[in-house]
Amino acid sequence: MIKAALEKVINEDMSAIWSVLDSDQKRLVADHLEIHNFKKNQYIYLEGEDPECLWCLFKGKVKKIKEGVGGRVQILRLMRPVQYFGYRAHFAEERYVSSAMAIEPSVIGSLPLTVVDELIRTNNNVALFFIQELSRNLGGSDTRIVTLTQKHIRGRLAEALIVLLDHYGYEDDNSTLKIYMAREDLASLSNMTTSNAIRTLSTFVNDKIIVVDGRRIKIINEPMLRKISKLGF
Q1: Do 159 and 147 touch, CB atoms closer than 8 A?
Q2: In terms of Cα–Cα distance, which of 56, 25, 15 is closest to 118?
Q3: What whole-number distance in Å separates Cα of residue 100 and Cα of residue 83?
Q4: DSSP 3-state helix, strand, coil percentages of the chain (rounded to 5)?
Q5: For residues 79 and 102, what is the distance between their CA atoms, to the nearest angstrom?
Q6: Structural domains in the chain, sorted by start
Q7: Residues 85, 104: contact at Cβ < 8 Å?
Q8: I need a surface site. Which of 3, 178, 185, 187 has the fewest CB within 10 A?
Q9: Cα 138 to chain center, whole Å?
């Protein structure tokens, strides 16, 4: 990537962390940041690998996944621009306990974690930035545990659709979700079988809450969907 384009990416897309750096630290980031283009369903890193980079999603969508009992894959978290990921294992001094995969063609930046360590040692605001990021992620994980263990099937699927809406928004028609997920991924996000996800989607269609066209999901009664998610059934 040419220098002018790289500087634009750093200043605009990485503004949250860029704003707390001094001039020398900004130069350090600019010198080591690399931009990658990932294809749909391409792994960014794999469970069991040693963490080497801080990843920042600039464009596209990424899912963090973990293989469970019997090889069943669980979606742990969805990433949206601009979010940082892939650093928790480094701070914990362990290997990755999950994998990251591009849901669609995505542009992602990488910064060596050795550079991140240097920034943290020399700038308390960088340390605070990552503490806040980790704290928000932990809070989201706590909420998700309750969702997946206490809500009924309808509540879990409604919650998944609301998560997709809150993360990625609507298309220009203000009703179609701006992400097209396979039924298997919807099921994984909702902690249910694919067949249950398909049946529950059908009940939402019959109740005139959504309209389904292949992988395109149009929400036509958002208040009711949020109510089902909140009540859990």
Answers
A1: yes
A2: 25
A3: 13
A4: 50, 25, 25
A5: 9
A6: 3-141 (2.60.120.10), 151-231 (1.10.10.10)
A7: no
A8: 3
A9: 14
Strand, coil or helix: 229? helix
Could you give the CA distance from residue 137 to residue 143 in angstroms, rounded to a whole number? 10
| pTM for the predicted model, two decimal places | 0.86
For residue 216, what are the β-bridge partners?
A: 213
Residue pLDDT tens, the chain, 233 long:
445 555 566 666 666 777 888 889 988 988 999 999 999 999 999 999 999 999 999 999 999 999 887 778 899 999 998 889 999 999 999 999 999 999 999 999 999 999 999 999 999 999 999 999 899 888 888 787 877 778 899 999 999 999 999 999 999 999 999 999 999 999 999 989 999 999 999 999 999 999 999 999 999 999 999 999 988 88
Would you state the torsion angle of the CA atoms of residues 193, 83, 150, 183, taken in this order, to the nearest 10 degrees? -20
In the DSSP assignment, the letter for residue 103 is S
Residue 126 to residue 109: CA distance in whole angstroms? 18
Residue type, 161: L
Q: What are phi and psi of 42, to 5 degrees?
A: -90, 135
Q: Which residue has the tokens 């249950």?
A: 196
